[in-house]
Amino acid sequence: MDTRPIGIFDSGVGGLTVVDKVFRLLPNENIVYFGDTARVPYGNKSKETVTRFSKEIVKFLSSFKVKLIIVACNTASSLSLGALKKAFSIPVIGVIKPGVEEALKTSKTGRIGVIGTERTISSSAYEKEIESTGRNSFVIQKSCPLFVPLVENRWLSGDITLKIVRKNLAPLLARNIDTLILGCTHYPLLKKAIQKIAGEKVRLIDSSIAVAKYTKHLLDNKNLRGNTGKTYAKFFVSDDTEGFIRLAKVFLRRNIKAKRIVF
Ligand code: DGL
Hints:
- By secondary structure, the protein is of the alpha/beta class.
- The protein has two domains: 6-94 and 209-260, Rossmann fold (3-Layer(aba) Sandwich), CATH 3.40.50; 96-207, Rossmann fold, CATH 3.40.50.1860.
- It is 46% helix and 17% strand.
- The protein is built from eleven helices and ten strands.
- The protein has a six-stranded parallel β-sheet, with helices on both faces. Strands 6-5-7-8 form a four-stranded parallel β-sheet, with helices on both faces.
- Helix 2 packs across helix 3, helix 4 packs across helix 10 and helix 8 (159-173) crosses helix 9 (191-198).
- It is globular.
- The mean pLDDT is 96.
- D-glutamic acid binds next to helix 3.
């Protein structure tokens, strides 16, 4: 048994999709979350910048004696995971590998679509991870920069949202994908709209579920599971807490408290 908390971070509020799944799958774990709300978005920033920010955050989370860290942000996972693993001795998990494993288990035809931020897509992190498995596959990627603002403004359904989703998914659907990786923290909130446009034949891979399952396996294998007693979840942000707390209600369907931290 290990009651040390799990550290989770994201560029902002989106990583709460991962917190939500960890709450459900690992209800006996303590959590410390950091959302870099002052410097969001990461999706259009350089590798160097995202890695610098990520290192600062891992350092901060380490001060809570976390037993492992989940990089909930797809962009930071794509650009900075290698550097974080090198720089810190704590286990650091990204969302790419778990998402890919789930997609490969799900896909029957090997025709896999990946959507994400500009930087996630231009890094080809998902494509490279799929290739590294040696599985016979065809990967088609597309950045969907409008999806994050849709979610942050709670435009989760309706005609305009469906139109934007349709336009963005068109090139992937034209290539007959049977599986679509939602490679961004925010996209699980658009699942209904995406499924509606993609049709029932396309299976959606929610990397927040995949990484929560992966974390559970890892904790089991290393005998690091938490206790059954009272747990806590602490939330920290780098900008005002107000907007974060408001959006957290959409992501977590519960009220939370948060504290602002300036590095
Ligand atoms: N959290 C980011 C991701 O998953 C999306 C928001 C951003 O661009 O920072 O890639």
